[in-house]
């Protein structure tokens, strides 16, 4: 019993020692490495941020690049987590509510925050790219076009003195109602009354005044109703209580000065006496006191004009919103309120369009709308249809040429105006220029290639259409017919010879003159593509077999030697020989004692030279055929031939 506690102590000590042993074998955990941030690897970026300005974007100041960027890109790079403005609204949550306002600054509406703001650092507060006034003027340049400037613009806040930069419940992003805003500075009511002809005019200041600049000290708009200048307000207004009100017979007052006009065509608002649908009563930035530019005023009713941007071709006055260049605003003696007859009004701008010698019939008859639309078109040149279809609607015979084999590229694409002037021209068929200058508009490289060569007469004279059809043909390169037929129109003697002779050169037989000749020009004789000998050998390879390594017939070495024995087009003799075979060899090789001796004292027959000799060359100067009859090869003719007397 006394040993029991000791035994327990021993067991405890053993267990403790075992525990120490185990723990000593386990390695201590290494301290975790500190994760690097973006700046650690991109120190140059930090320098750039500091250089660009003292004002830092909050995530940049906190080195929180991941606030806006994804750290890993599929192809490398730090990509934004989302597109502006959603990305910006992650932090600028209070600005989301502003989108409920009626009026939103155009860049913000498009989500393009970075038009005005820098995204890392800036020299200006609120990370603006420039001081606010200069930044506004980068888009709104027109607000400083004037001799006199509103003093509010000189305030330290600049534009932001009256406007808010993002959204507002007031038009033009004003902080409050325009007149209330004006009266917050112009508080002296007595002075205002005196300046306004002793009239309590406390509302709608900007109906007469430009809030930014003007050409007089009063900052009046450029166009002001004469009654306003004269202070004759009560011709149109009455006092109702302490405020100005409009007379019930206001339109009749207008008609006292602006007499009713008459005409065959009357603008509906004018007929209905709704003057103020188009005009301002006091002052305007636009001629005739229009509420806006003519185009924008017209769009109020003619809403189809709002879609003009989708069209390929827009009439210049329409593009400039200058409807009044063609139309009258009230009445006209011509349809559609035109200023003149539609057959003449076009020429008020396009007066030189018909001043050339040859005139297109529709243009000559002043019938512009036969081909053109007056406002816009999905086709270039305000055309009523595709150029090709429009031309073919009259030129039906020409349309059939589309079915031919070879089409001229402009004709194939339907670009008739590439070659023809659709109105008038000094050249026949309304061509925009004469040939060959017209052809060289596209084929100028072709002209340069032939500039230093001798030229074929039709090409030299620029008579391209002698051989080619301008639109299409059933033959390659739009030539007017089979090539030989075209050639024989000039080379008619050669044509007759070819048709009458029994033996014809195969390229000629196939109507392929261009196999040997360059039809435009070359420095070789007869406009051949190569020198005559080389050209012949390019097909007749066998005749040049011995020329390099053995013996060639001496005439071959002469330039153009082939024609000494052959006709090149046609002949009444086989092999296109220019004489009977018994007449050719003896021209050079007279049958004399020396020749008879060389033929084993046998007189050779003039007609049989080529039975033994190759007329072009051979292994030696005898030019014998390679395969010979054994007795003949030994020089023994007597087994077959009896000796002939000299």
TrEMBL record:
InterPro entries (UniProt xref): Multihaem_cyt_sf, Paired_CXXCH_1
Top-level taxon of origin: Bacteria
Signal peptide start and end residues: none
Pfam families listed in its UniProt record: Paired_CXXCH_1 (PF09699)
Domain Doubled CXXCH motif: residue ranges: 57-95, 105-142, 150-190, 267-305, 315-352, 360-398, 408-447, 456-493, 505-542, 553-590, 606-624
SUPFAM superfamilies linked to this entry: Multiheme cytochromes
Descriptive protein name: Doubled CXXCH motif domain-containing protein
Species, as recorded: Thermodesulfatator autotrophicus
């Amino acid at each position: 019993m006394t040993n029991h506690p000791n035994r327990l102590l021993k067991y405890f000590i053993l267990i403790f020692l075992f525990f120490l042993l185990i723990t000593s074998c386990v390695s201590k955990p290494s301290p975790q490495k500190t994760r690097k941030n973006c700046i650690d690897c991109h120190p140059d970026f930090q320098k750039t941020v500091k250089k660009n300005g003292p004002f830092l974007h909050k995530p940049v100041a906190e080195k929180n690049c991941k606030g806006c960027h994804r750290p890993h890109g599929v192809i490398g790079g730090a990509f934004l987590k989302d597109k502006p403005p959603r990305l910006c609204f992650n932090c600028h949550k209070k600005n989301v509510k502003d989108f409920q306002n009626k009026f939103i600054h155009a860049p913000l509406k498009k989500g393009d925050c970075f038009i005005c703001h820098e995204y890392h650092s800036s020299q200006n507060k609120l990370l603006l790219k420039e001081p606010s006034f200069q930044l506004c003027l980068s888009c709104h340049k027109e607000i400083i076009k004037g001799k006199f400037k509103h003093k509010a613009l000189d305030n330290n806040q600049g534009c932001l003195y009256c406007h808010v930069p993002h959204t507002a419940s007031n038009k033009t992003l004003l902080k409050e109602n325009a007149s209330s805003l004006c009266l917050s500075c112009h508080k002296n009511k007595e002075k205002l009354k005196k300046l306004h002809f002793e009239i309590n005019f406390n509302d709608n200041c900007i109906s007469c005044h430009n809030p930014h600049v003007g050409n007089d000290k009063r900052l009046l708009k450029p166009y002001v109703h004469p009654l306003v200048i004269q202070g004759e307000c009560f011709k149109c207004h009455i006092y109702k209580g302490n405020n100005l009100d409009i007379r019930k017979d206001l339109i009749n007052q207008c008609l006292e000065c602006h007499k009713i006009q008459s005409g065959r065509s009357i603008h509906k608002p004018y007929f209905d006496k709704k003057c103020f649908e188009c005009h301002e009563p006091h002052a305007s930035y636009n001629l005739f006191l229009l509420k806006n530019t003519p185009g924008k005023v017209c769009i109020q009713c003619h809403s189809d004009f709002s879609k003009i941007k989708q069209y390929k071709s827009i009439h210049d006055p329409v593009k400039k919103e200058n409807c009044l260049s063609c139309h009258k605003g009230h009445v006209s003696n011509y349809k559609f309120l035109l200023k003149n007859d539609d057959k003449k009004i076009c020429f008020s701008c396009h007066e030189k369009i018909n001043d050339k010698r040859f005139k297109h019939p529709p243009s000559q008859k002043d019938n512009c709308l036969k081909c053109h639309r007056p406002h816009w078109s999905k086709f270039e040149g305000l055309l009523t249809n595709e150029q090709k279809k429009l031309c073919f609607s009259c030129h039906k015979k020409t349309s059939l040429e589309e079915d031919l084999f070879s089409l001229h590229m402009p004709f194939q694409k339907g670009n008739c105006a590439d070659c023809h002037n659709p109105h008038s021209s000094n050249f026949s068929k309304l061509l925009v220029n004469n040939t060959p200058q017209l052809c060289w508009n596209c084929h100028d490289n072709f002209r340069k290639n032939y500039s230093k060569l001798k030229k074929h007469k039709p090409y030299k004279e620029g008579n391209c259409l002698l051989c080619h059809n301008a639109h299409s043909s059933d033959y390659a390169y739009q030539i007017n017919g089979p090539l030989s037929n075209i050639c024989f129109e000039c080379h008619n003697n050669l044509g007759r010879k070819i048709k009458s002779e029994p033996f014809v050169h195969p390229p000629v037989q196939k109507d392929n003159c261009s196999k040997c000749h360059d039809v435009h020009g070359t420095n070789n004789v007869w406009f051949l593509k190569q020198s005559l000998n080389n050209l012949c050998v390019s097909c007749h390879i066998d005749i040049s077999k011995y020329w390099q390594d053995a013996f060639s017939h001496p005439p071959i070495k002469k330039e153009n030697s082939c024609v000494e024995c052959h006709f090149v087009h046609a002949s009444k003799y086989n092999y296109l020989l220019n004489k009977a075979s018994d007449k050719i060899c003896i021209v050079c090789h007279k049958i004399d004692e020396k020749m008879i001796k060389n033929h084993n004292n046998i007189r050779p027959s003039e007609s049989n030279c080529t039975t033994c000799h190759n007329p072009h060359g051979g292994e030696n100067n005898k030019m014998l055929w390679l395969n010979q009859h054994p007795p003949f090869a030994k020089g023994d003719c007597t087994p077959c031939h009896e000796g002939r007397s000299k």
